[in-house]
Amino acid sequence: MSTQQQFNKSTAEIYKKISKSVPEIEWKIHAPLIEKINKLKVEKNAVILAHNYQTPEIYHGVADISADSLALAVEAAKTSARIIVLCGVHFMAETAKLMNPSKKVLLPDMSAGCSLSASITGDDVRLLKQKYPGVPVVSYINTSADVKAETDICCTSANAVKVVESLNVDKVIFLPDQYLANYVASNTNVKIISWKGTCIVHEKFTAKEVEEVRAANPGIKIIAHPECPPDVINASDFAGSTSGMADYVNKNKPKKVMLVTECSMSDNVEADNPEVEFVKPCNLCPYMKKINLEKILSCLENEANEITIDKKISDAARKSVLRMTEIGR
Ligand code: 13P
Ligand code: SF4
Disulfide check for 176: which of 66, 197, 266, 304 has CB 3.0–4.6 Å away? Predict the structure, then answer.
Protein backbone atom coordinates (compact mmCIF):
# COMPACT_ATOMS: atom_id res chain seq x y z
CA MET A 1 0.00 0.00 0.00
CA SER A 2 1.38 3.46 -0.91
CA THR A 3 1.85 6.07 1.80
CA GLN A 4 -1.00 8.10 0.27
CA GLN A 5 -3.35 5.10 0.42
CA GLN A 6 -2.37 4.50 4.08
CA PHE A 7 -3.22 8.12 4.96
CA ASN A 8 -6.57 7.93 3.13
CA LYS A 9 -7.36 4.76 5.06
CA SER A 10 -6.45 6.33 8.39
CA THR A 11 -8.62 9.43 7.82
CA ALA A 12 -11.53 7.17 6.82
CA GLU A 13 -11.15 5.40 10.20
CA ILE A 14 -11.19 8.77 11.98
CA TYR A 15 -14.32 9.86 10.12
CA LYS A 16 -16.16 6.67 11.02
CA LYS A 17 -15.73 7.66 14.68
CA ILE A 18 -16.87 11.31 14.45
CA SER A 19 -19.36 11.21 11.56
CA LYS A 20 -22.25 11.89 13.98
CA SER A 21 -20.95 15.40 14.74
CA VAL A 22 -18.98 16.34 11.59
CA PRO A 23 -20.99 16.66 8.32
CA GLU A 24 -19.52 14.89 5.27
CA ILE A 25 -19.20 18.17 3.37
CA GLU A 26 -16.94 19.55 6.13
CA TRP A 27 -14.94 16.34 6.27
CA LYS A 28 -13.89 16.82 2.64
CA ILE A 29 -12.06 19.98 3.77
CA HIS A 30 -10.73 18.47 7.03
CA ALA A 31 -9.35 15.16 5.72
CA PRO A 32 -6.48 16.53 3.54
CA LEU A 33 -5.46 18.95 6.30
CA ILE A 34 -5.40 16.10 8.84
CA GLU A 35 -3.18 14.06 6.52
CA LYS A 36 -0.76 16.97 6.06
CA ILE A 37 -0.58 17.77 9.79
CA ASN A 38 -0.04 14.14 10.80
CA LYS A 39 2.77 13.77 8.25
CA LEU A 40 4.41 17.07 9.17
CA LYS A 41 4.34 16.45 12.91
CA VAL A 42 6.36 13.25 12.40
CA GLU A 43 8.84 15.01 10.09
CA LYS A 44 9.29 17.88 12.55
CA ASN A 45 9.30 15.77 15.72
CA ALA A 46 6.30 17.65 17.08
CA VAL A 47 3.67 16.52 19.56
CA ILE A 48 0.12 17.88 19.42
CA LEU A 49 -1.52 18.35 22.82
CA ALA A 50 -5.22 19.24 22.65
CA HIS A 51 -7.69 20.30 25.29
CA ASN A 52 -10.96 18.36 25.62
CA TYR A 53 -12.88 21.38 24.19
CA GLN A 54 -11.17 21.19 20.80
CA THR A 55 -13.40 20.23 17.88
CA PRO A 56 -13.67 16.50 17.01
CA GLU A 57 -11.50 16.77 13.87
CA ILE A 58 -8.66 18.12 16.06
CA TYR A 59 -9.34 15.95 19.12
CA HIS A 60 -9.74 12.68 17.19
CA GLY A 61 -7.87 13.67 14.00
CA VAL A 62 -4.49 15.16 14.87
CA ALA A 63 -4.02 15.26 18.66
CA ASP A 64 -1.45 12.88 20.15
CA ILE A 65 -2.92 13.52 23.56
CA SER A 66 -6.33 15.06 24.36
CA ALA A 67 -6.90 15.90 28.01
CA ASP A 68 -7.91 18.34 30.75
CA SER A 69 -5.63 21.18 31.75
CA LEU A 70 -3.90 19.23 34.53
CA ALA A 71 -2.98 16.33 32.23
CA LEU A 72 -1.87 18.74 29.48
CA ALA A 73 0.61 20.32 31.92
CA VAL A 74 1.90 16.89 32.99
CA GLU A 75 2.19 15.62 29.39
CA ALA A 76 4.02 18.79 28.33
CA ALA A 77 6.62 18.12 31.03
CA LYS A 78 7.09 14.50 29.90
CA THR A 79 7.42 14.92 26.14
CA SER A 80 10.72 14.37 24.34
CA ALA A 81 9.41 15.97 21.12
CA ARG A 82 11.21 19.08 19.80
CA ILE A 83 8.00 21.06 19.30
CA ILE A 84 4.78 21.16 21.32
CA VAL A 85 1.72 22.45 19.42
CA LEU A 86 -0.85 23.33 22.07
CA CYS A 87 -4.39 23.22 20.71
CA GLY A 88 -6.20 25.12 23.42
CA VAL A 89 -5.96 28.62 24.88
CA HIS A 90 -3.03 30.87 25.71
CA PHE A 91 -2.65 30.00 29.41
CA MET A 92 -2.41 26.30 28.47
CA ALA A 93 0.43 26.98 26.01
CA GLU A 94 2.17 29.19 28.57
CA THR A 95 1.86 26.43 31.17
CA ALA A 96 3.36 23.92 28.70
CA LYS A 97 6.32 26.29 28.24
CA LEU A 98 6.70 26.63 32.03
CA MET A 99 6.71 22.86 32.40
CA ASN A 100 9.23 22.23 29.62
CA PRO A 101 11.15 25.47 28.91
CA SER A 102 13.64 23.98 26.42
CA LYS A 103 10.85 23.04 23.96
CA LYS A 104 9.45 25.21 21.21
CA VAL A 105 5.80 25.69 22.24
CA LEU A 106 3.45 26.91 19.49
CA LEU A 107 -0.13 28.17 19.86
CA PRO A 108 -2.04 28.11 16.52
CA ASP A 109 -3.84 31.39 17.35
CA MET A 110 -2.19 33.80 19.78
CA SER A 111 -5.53 35.55 20.46
CA ALA A 112 -7.07 32.42 22.01
CA GLY A 113 -7.59 33.87 25.48
CA CYS A 114 -9.84 33.02 28.44
CA SER A 115 -12.25 35.24 30.41
CA LEU A 116 -10.93 33.88 33.71
CA SER A 117 -7.31 34.51 32.80
CA ALA A 118 -8.22 38.05 31.66
CA SER A 119 -10.02 38.81 34.94
CA ILE A 120 -6.87 39.29 37.05
CA THR A 121 -3.33 40.65 36.76
CA GLY A 122 -0.11 40.23 38.71
CA ASP A 123 -0.68 43.72 40.19
CA ASP A 124 -4.11 42.65 41.49
CA VAL A 125 -2.51 39.69 43.27
CA ARG A 126 0.19 41.89 44.81
CA LEU A 127 -2.56 44.17 46.22
CA LEU A 128 -4.46 41.18 47.62
CA LYS A 129 -1.30 39.94 49.34
CA GLN A 130 -0.92 43.37 50.97
CA LYS A 131 -4.54 43.25 52.12
CA TYR A 132 -4.23 39.70 53.54
CA PRO A 133 -0.60 39.41 54.70
CA GLY A 134 0.63 35.85 55.22
CA VAL A 135 -2.43 34.22 53.60
CA PRO A 136 -1.27 31.79 50.87
CA VAL A 137 -2.42 32.36 47.28
CA VAL A 138 -3.91 29.46 45.33
CA SER A 139 -4.42 30.30 41.64
CA TYR A 140 -6.41 28.39 39.11
CA ILE A 141 -4.26 27.28 36.17
CA ASN A 142 -6.51 29.54 34.03
CA THR A 143 -4.25 32.52 34.77
CA SER A 144 -1.33 34.29 33.09
CA ALA A 145 2.30 33.55 33.97
CA ASP A 146 2.38 36.99 35.70
CA VAL A 147 -0.33 35.84 38.11
CA LYS A 148 1.26 32.41 38.56
CA ALA A 149 4.53 34.16 39.49
CA GLU A 150 2.72 35.80 42.45
CA THR A 151 1.09 32.50 43.45
CA ASP A 152 2.10 29.97 46.11
CA ILE A 153 0.49 27.02 44.37
CA CYS A 154 -1.67 26.48 41.28
CA CYS A 155 -4.64 24.16 40.98
CA THR A 156 -7.02 22.92 38.31
CA SER A 157 -10.65 21.89 38.60
CA ALA A 158 -9.36 18.31 39.01
CA ASN A 159 -7.45 18.97 42.24
CA ALA A 160 -8.60 22.32 43.68
CA VAL A 161 -9.88 20.92 47.02
CA LYS A 162 -6.82 18.67 47.44
CA VAL A 163 -4.45 21.58 46.73
CA VAL A 164 -6.20 23.90 49.21
CA GLU A 165 -6.16 21.23 51.95
CA SER A 166 -2.50 20.36 51.25
CA LEU A 167 -1.49 23.77 52.65
CA ASN A 168 -2.68 22.93 56.19
CA VAL A 169 -3.85 26.49 56.85
CA ASP A 170 -7.23 27.84 57.93
CA LYS A 171 -7.52 30.51 55.20
CA VAL A 172 -6.43 30.88 51.54
CA ILE A 173 -6.79 33.47 48.78
CA PHE A 174 -8.33 31.52 45.88
CA LEU A 175 -8.14 33.11 42.39
CA PRO A 176 -9.78 34.05 40.05
CA ASP A 177 -12.96 31.96 39.53
CA GLN A 178 -15.67 32.86 42.06
CA TYR A 179 -17.69 29.76 41.19
CA LEU A 180 -14.78 27.34 41.52
CA ALA A 181 -14.00 29.13 44.81
CA ASN A 182 -17.60 28.46 45.90
CA TYR A 183 -17.28 24.82 44.90
CA VAL A 184 -14.05 24.45 46.92
CA ALA A 185 -15.59 26.27 49.92
CA SER A 186 -18.49 23.82 49.95
CA ASN A 187 -16.06 20.87 50.05
CA THR A 188 -13.59 22.02 52.73
CA ASN A 189 -13.44 23.75 56.11
CA VAL A 190 -10.66 26.08 54.92
CA LYS A 191 -11.91 29.69 54.66
CA ILE A 192 -11.79 30.86 51.04
CA ILE A 193 -11.14 34.48 50.04
CA SER A 194 -12.27 34.69 46.42
CA TRP A 195 -11.99 36.97 43.37
CA LYS A 196 -14.71 38.08 40.96
CA GLY A 197 -13.70 36.15 37.80
CA THR A 198 -16.09 33.94 35.85
CA CYS A 199 -15.95 31.69 32.82
CA ILE A 200 -18.18 33.16 30.09
CA VAL A 201 -19.13 29.64 28.99
CA HIS A 202 -20.14 28.10 32.32
CA GLU A 203 -21.72 31.16 33.96
CA LYS A 204 -24.49 31.04 31.33
CA PHE A 205 -25.97 27.74 32.53
CA THR A 206 -28.92 27.94 34.92
CA ALA A 207 -30.39 25.48 37.42
CA LYS A 208 -33.77 25.96 35.65
CA GLU A 209 -32.26 24.69 32.39
CA VAL A 210 -30.78 21.66 34.18
CA GLU A 211 -34.08 20.90 35.93
CA GLU A 212 -36.00 21.18 32.64
CA VAL A 213 -33.65 18.72 30.94
CA ARG A 214 -34.03 16.33 33.89
CA ALA A 215 -37.83 16.59 33.82
CA ALA A 216 -37.92 15.90 30.08
CA ASN A 217 -35.43 12.99 30.27
CA PRO A 218 -36.24 10.68 33.24
CA GLY A 219 -33.17 8.76 34.46
CA ILE A 220 -30.65 11.08 32.76
CA LYS A 221 -27.28 11.66 34.48
CA ILE A 222 -26.27 15.33 34.54
CA ILE A 223 -22.60 16.18 34.97
CA ALA A 224 -21.38 19.75 35.51
CA HIS A 225 -18.01 21.45 35.37
CA PRO A 226 -17.04 23.14 38.69
CA GLU A 227 -16.84 26.51 36.86
CA CYS A 228 -20.68 26.45 36.78
CA PRO A 229 -22.71 28.53 39.28
CA PRO A 230 -23.37 26.69 42.59
CA ASP A 231 -27.11 26.11 41.95
CA VAL A 232 -26.25 24.40 38.64
CA ILE A 233 -23.77 22.09 40.42
CA ASN A 234 -26.36 21.36 43.13
CA ALA A 235 -28.92 20.45 40.45
CA SER A 236 -26.42 18.01 38.82
CA ASP A 237 -25.48 14.43 39.73
CA PHE A 238 -21.71 14.91 39.60
CA ALA A 239 -19.14 17.68 39.14
CA GLY A 240 -15.67 17.19 37.72
CA SER A 241 -12.92 18.52 35.47
CA THR A 242 -13.31 17.90 31.74
CA SER A 243 -11.40 14.61 32.03
CA GLY A 244 -13.36 13.79 35.18
CA MET A 245 -16.56 14.19 33.15
CA ALA A 246 -15.24 11.97 30.34
CA ASP A 247 -14.10 9.32 32.86
CA TYR A 248 -17.54 9.33 34.47
CA VAL A 249 -19.17 8.50 31.11
CA ASN A 250 -16.47 5.99 30.09
CA LYS A 251 -16.80 4.09 33.39
CA ASN A 252 -20.52 4.37 34.22
CA LYS A 253 -21.93 4.23 30.66
CA PRO A 254 -25.18 5.97 31.62
CA LYS A 255 -28.04 5.38 29.16
CA LYS A 256 -28.50 9.12 28.74
CA VAL A 257 -26.25 11.96 29.82
CA MET A 258 -25.89 15.73 29.66
CA LEU A 259 -22.49 17.38 30.11
CA VAL A 260 -23.03 20.91 31.41
CA THR A 261 -20.06 22.48 29.68
CA GLU A 262 -18.54 23.51 26.32
CA CYS A 263 -20.12 22.04 23.17
CA SER A 264 -17.23 20.00 21.73
CA MET A 265 -16.91 18.04 24.96
CA SER A 266 -20.09 16.02 24.27
CA ASP A 267 -19.11 15.43 20.62
CA ASN A 268 -15.69 14.08 21.67
CA VAL A 269 -16.94 11.86 24.50
CA GLU A 270 -19.82 10.61 22.33
CA ALA A 271 -17.36 9.42 19.67
CA ASP A 272 -15.79 7.14 22.32
CA ASN A 273 -19.19 6.06 23.72
CA PRO A 274 -21.55 5.51 20.77
CA GLU A 275 -23.95 3.50 22.95
CA VAL A 276 -24.61 6.48 25.28
CA GLU A 277 -27.28 9.01 24.32
CA PHE A 278 -26.17 12.64 24.75
CA VAL A 279 -28.61 15.48 25.41
CA LYS A 280 -26.65 18.46 24.20
CA PRO A 281 -27.60 21.92 25.44
CA CYS A 282 -24.16 23.55 25.59
CA ASN A 283 -22.28 26.84 25.25
CA LEU A 284 -19.39 27.49 22.85
CA CYS A 285 -16.07 28.86 24.09
CA PRO A 286 -15.16 31.49 21.46
CA TYR A 287 -11.49 31.26 22.48
CA MET A 288 -11.17 27.49 22.13
CA LYS A 289 -12.93 27.79 18.77
CA LYS A 290 -10.21 30.09 17.41
CA ILE A 291 -8.08 26.98 16.86
CA ASN A 292 -8.68 25.11 13.61
CA LEU A 293 -6.83 22.71 11.32
CA GLU A 294 -5.67 25.46 8.91
CA LYS A 295 -4.04 27.38 11.75
CA ILE A 296 -2.47 24.23 13.22
CA LEU A 297 -0.91 23.38 9.84
CA SER A 298 0.30 26.92 9.23
CA CYS A 299 1.92 27.32 12.67
CA LEU A 300 3.62 23.94 12.35
CA GLU A 301 4.85 24.63 8.79
CA ASN A 302 6.29 28.01 9.77
CA GLU A 303 7.11 27.16 13.38
CA ALA A 304 5.25 30.38 14.12
CA ASN A 305 3.43 31.73 17.19
CA GLU A 306 6.07 30.62 19.64
CA ILE A 307 5.38 31.19 23.36
CA THR A 308 8.08 33.12 25.21
CA ILE A 309 8.05 34.12 28.88
CA ASP A 310 10.32 36.56 30.66
CA LYS A 311 12.90 34.54 32.65
CA LYS A 312 12.22 36.15 36.04
CA ILE A 313 8.48 35.57 35.69
CA SER A 314 8.85 32.05 34.36
CA ASP A 315 11.20 30.99 37.19
CA ALA A 316 8.65 32.12 39.80
CA ALA A 317 5.59 30.89 37.88
CA ARG A 318 7.12 27.44 37.28
CA LYS A 319 7.43 26.83 41.04
CA SER A 320 3.69 27.27 41.59
CA VAL A 321 2.80 24.87 38.76
CA LEU A 322 5.38 22.25 39.77
CA ARG A 323 4.16 22.37 43.36
CA MET A 324 0.67 21.56 42.03
CA THR A 325 1.80 18.67 39.79
CA GLU A 326 3.60 17.12 42.80
CA ILE A 327 0.20 16.92 44.51
CA GLY A 328 -1.43 15.39 41.44
CA ARG A 329 -5.09 14.62 40.86
P1 13P B 1 -10.31 21.51 32.79
O2 13P B 1 -9.08 21.71 33.61
O3 13P B 1 -11.40 20.82 33.52
O4 13P B 1 -9.95 20.83 31.51
O5 13P B 1 -10.94 22.93 32.45
C6 13P B 1 -10.27 23.91 31.72
C7 13P B 1 -11.19 24.93 31.24
O8 13P B 1 -10.80 25.92 30.66
C9 13P B 1 -12.61 24.71 31.48
O10 13P B 1 -13.34 25.77 31.06
FE1 SF4 C 1 -11.68 30.08 29.72
FE2 SF4 C 1 -14.20 29.31 30.04
FE3 SF4 C 1 -13.10 29.12 27.64
FE4 SF4 C 1 -12.33 27.48 29.63
S5 SF4 C 1 -14.31 27.56 28.66
S6 SF4 C 1 -11.00 28.57 28.21
S7 SF4 C 1 -12.50 28.84 31.38
S8 SF4 C 1 -13.48 31.01 28.77
Answer: 197
